[in-house]
Design a protein that fits this description.
By secondary structure, this protein is of the alpha/beta class. The chain contains nine helices and 21 strands. Helix 7 crosses helix 8. Bound molecules: S-adenosylmethionine.
């Protein structure tokens, strides 16, 4: 099955299997761009909801990497420009589907990683890059590689809007209490600069985050609006050049009691600055590192072993992703009940894990053979309640 461009002309979808009552999922046999357009236009039903636009909390996609090879289930070789054009079109559609706090996770390997990254910068905006995570997929390394024994691929993570994104990439490790050296009657805390210390963010790149806050050095009080005794404070870097805050004025209004004004001594003498009071609460975990080891998230081999257990005696899908990887993504990016979308679903790791975690999901897969041999049996084994729709304009 080749990667095909969406059908031009009339595109129709028909129900292959309807479900009574509440469903958590929608499986579409069809082409990703066709399905996304139909979902955005309301021609396909979003589980327990009315529409797709602005409704998806996390998109995870693992499109063919364009390695130049061919797998039993799909071809992985198309012209580079064509591949980029297809990805661009789908990224624009996926961006429309995301909520203001949502994220997109693109899994890719060295073949097209740099091009995909530039494309994501173009479609989502450079400022919306969250991380380019390195994912170890083969701890021994592929000894068949010509020079190096390939052992990783990449997960590019972008926010729909970095200012309003909601992401909690927490590890299993508890934070070190020694990192919270201050203490008051409410317990240990640390002071974090409210100024964004990343030089990439400045009034030229995020003008809306450069604004004056009102602060009183004597009481420590900070507010988004003027009050008696307050002076206006703008964010500056150590060298005195203009910086931006990490919080919008709206967030400051909501959480002003977590902010504190302090006099600091800089190169230009004393000035007032604003800090976030970051408290150590009981369950606080360390942030996830941006390198994910196979021991933590599984490998290509462990993913195939998982499938063998679920569907014994069958031909195994060529390139499944491991379930712990998807669990980690969905834990960081979504809450129960929220909507997850994968429009290159393959053997269905994303919908299966989403189902298990109580998320709603939409999965699109072009190859009917893959849907029948892998996706449907896997979802059925999971006991998922979902509808299946089929693109009728594609004769596959
Ligand atoms: C790398 S696999 C995804 C594997 C999946 N993450 C898993 O865990 O099994 C890519 C899948 O995208 C599908 N595909 C390729 N082009 C597509 C398109 N235009 N629309 C929808 N699916 C497509 C292929 O048939 C293949 O099953």
């Amino acid at each position: 099955m080749d990667w095909v461009e969406g059908t031009s002309g009339v595109i129709r979808f028909e129900a292959e299997r309807r479900a009574e009552g509440n469903t958590t999922g929608l499986l579409v046999r069809g082409e990703s761009a066709d399905a996304l357009r139909a979902l955005l236009d309301g021609e396909l039903p979003v589980p327990e909801d009315s529409g797709l636009r602005g409704a998806v909390q996390a998109v995870y996609i693992d499109p063919p990497y364009n390695t130049g090879g061919a797998f039993a289930d799909y071809s992985d070789k198309v012209d580079h420009e064509l591949w980029l054009g297809m990805l661009r079109e789908r990224l624009h559609l996926l961006r429309e589907a995301l909520t203001a706090s949502g994220t997109l996770w693109l899994h890719i390997d060295d073949s097209e990683m740099a091009y995909a990254k530039v494309l994501l910068d173009e479609v989502f905006g450079r400022e919306n890059l969250v991380s380019a995570i390195v994912v170890e997929n083969n701890p021994k390394g592929r000894q068949l590689g010509k020079f190096f024994a390939g052992s990783h691929d990449h997960l590019l993570v972008y926010a729909r809007d970095i200012r309003t994104v909601r992401l909690e990439p927490a590890s299993a490790e508890a934070v070190n209490p020694a990192d919270f050296p201050k203490s008051d009657e409410r317990g240990p805390y640390r002071l974090l600069p409210l100024r964004n210390t990343n030089k990439k963010f400045h009034p030229g790149s995020v003008p809306t985050m450069h604004y004056g806050l009102w602060a009183d050095g004597a009481t420590g009080r900070v507010a988004a609006d003027p009050f008696e005794g307050a002076i206006e404070v703008f964010p500056v870097f150590g060298d005195g050049s203009s910086a931006v805050w990490r919080w919008s004025a709206a967030l400051v209004r909501e959480r002003a009691d977590e902010l504190l004004a302090r006099v600091v001594r800089g190169r230009g003498g004393e000035r007032l600055d604003v800090f976030q009071v970051d408290r150590l609460h009981g369950e606080r975990k360390k942030k996830l590192r941006s390198i994910w080891s196979a021991a933590e998230v599984g490998s290509s081999d462990s993913a195939k072993a998982e499938l063998k257990k679920v569907l014994p005696g069958r031909q195994i899908f060529a390139t499944p992703k491991p379930e712990p990887l998807l669990r980690r993504v969905l834990e960081a990016a979504t809450e129960p009940g929220e909507l997850v979308l994968d429009c290159f679903a393959g053997s269905g790791t994303t919908p299966v894990v989403a189902e298990r975690m109580g998320r709603r999901w939409i999965a699109v897969e072009l190859s009917s053979a893959t849907v029948d041999a892998h996706l449907l049996p896997r979802l059925e084994h999971e006991g998922a309640r979902f509808e299946v729709w089929r693109e009728t304009s594609l004769a596959r």
